[in-house]
Amino acid sequence: MNKQILEKANAIIAKCDSASFGVIDESGYPSASAVSLCYPQDVLEVYFTTSLDCNKTNRIRANSKASINFFTDSDNITLVGVAEILTDQESKSKYWQSWFSQIYGDETNPDYCVIKFTTQRVSFWIGNEGAEFDIK
């Protein structure tokens, strides 16, 4: 694992508000949607929130394999791994952002959940340099 390129990737995602998140749908096809990120800092674990009863969470329950993509004008970070649905109040409170109240009311809403994405493989194009490797 190249520590230097991981540090560059972490610096890039820390500036991102959103990303594309892909899961496998009911027909076995990839399905991507935009997600708002919760304080992204580490490409090895990425967190965002969604509703507990929606296509994303239903698809994660059926198949936890997923991918997330961050991009800027010249950089691309693609992560492949698994997604996990977190419903414990500690996680919900930790990743709560004030603007979520427009959607969920408050962090105790039973329909509000956190998605934890754990990276297993990376593919980077950062500063005109490419890298691809598994996370061990």
From the alpha carbons, calculate the radius of gyration and give it in angstroms.
Answer: 15 Å
Residue stretches low in confidence (pLDDT < 50, at least 5 long) are none
SSE string:
HEEEHEEHHEE
Number of domains: 1
Q: Please give the oligomerization state of what you see.
A: single chain
Helix run count: 4
Termini separation comes to: 8 Å
Number of strands: 7
Largest sheet: 7 strands, antiparallel
| Fraction of residues in β-strands | 35-45%
Fold and architecture overview:
- The protein contains 4 helices and 7 strands.
- The chain is an alpha+beta fold.
- It has a single domain, classed as Pnp Oxidase, Chain A, CATH 2.30.110.
- A hairpin with a 5-residue loop joins strand 1 and strand 2.
- The model has no long low-confidence stretch (mean pLDDT about 95).
In short:
By secondary structure, the protein is of the alpha+beta class. The protein has helices at 3-13, 55-62, 89-94, 101-104; strands at residues 18-24, 30-36, 45-51, 65-71, 76-86, 112-126, 129-134. The chain is built from 4 helices and 7 strands.
